[in-house]
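pinned: reference chain
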Amino acid sequence: MRFILFRHGHSLANQESRIVSSLENGTRATGGPLGTGFGLSQKGKQEVAKSAKALSDHILATAYPSQHARIRILTSPFQRTRQTADIIHQELCVFIESYRSALPQDASSSMPIISLEYNNGAREVPDLRERFFGEFEMKTPSDDLYSAVWREDGQNPFHERFGVESVATVTERMTRVVRSEEGSRKDLTGRSTDDATEETWVILVSHGDSLQILQTAMRGWSGDRHRQVEHLDTATWRDVAWCEALAHSHQ
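pinned: its structure tokens
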């Protein structure tokens, strides 16, 4: 099983330098600069489409000959992530159709097979939501406010100063998603059903801090080090795996 961490595209909240981190504000279709909530900006939609095309190429280049690559998209319920996931799904559909059409008939048995598990789009997973930033909700400028929280994170991953969700809590729910997906690929003996003939790709569409903290956990680092992980810019993705020390418990 492969995990792709995909951060949402540039959003209307990013455009305003505003923190929108609660489920209520992140999912509503009212308010914001356009009266439609805090979904993607036009810039965000364009950059997600471009990034999704690059991801399609990566999956094809990585899959083994004759291997069936099944793609599963999971998303945070926030508007900006839902819209990101929808664009990823659309681009993958176009890519898969084009790929299948271009395959020579005599090459079909030696080329990878690529398919989407959810034909109607992505599956919402509440645990992939944004980290909640407490009293800074709906405030600006976001960069200064985030920095104040991150300074505290570096001292104590359990802190809830300013009413924020702790790094430890985010770690627990984000890794729960990964463990749940890993469990879905195992048979009754506990062995993985993925092999050389089949691979499941799980695309997790989420948010900057949530994905930063998940990467930290998958590296086996303590939560206070999450700002040491290379940041995912908007609409960028990363192919990740558990560190060697933890990998054996996730086979």
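why pinned: The domain at 2-250 is CATH 3.40.50.1240 (Rossmann fold). The mean pLDDT is 93.
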